[in-house]
Amino acid sequence: MEKVADIASDIGEYIRQQRNTAKISLRQLSKLAGVSNPYLSQIERGVRKPSAEILQQIAKGLRISAEALYVQAGILDLPTGGPVGDAIRADAELTERQKQVLLDVYESFRRENAAARPAAAPGSDTPDTTPAAKTEESA
Prior knowledge:
Elements: H1 2-21, H2 26-33, H3 37-44, H4 52-62, H5 66-73, H6 82-90, H7 96-116, H8 131-138
């Protein structure tokens, strides 16, 4: 039971931080998100644990990714991404929206490169470097 209270408190504090960073009042966020002012206040104070739907509405009002709120609320696991993803997420100079766009672009490049990479020989840690593979790369 304490874990649920901790999660509610953590997500509430995170929402309050995002709201303050965006310079939006509680009342303004309430209107933008379509959530009652008292309920939003209870969420921020950790009294209530919002549903995924409410988090999505709050994310829309804050103009951040719903995924960021889902991770904070414990609904989603923190995405993996190695040091680049961690650095992007940790950058205090970027908004949540900017972070998400950078992560999306970075992941799309990684997927594209992985799809274009020649398959490594079974049991080998290095890509195929036969003349045929080199010819395909230079073409």
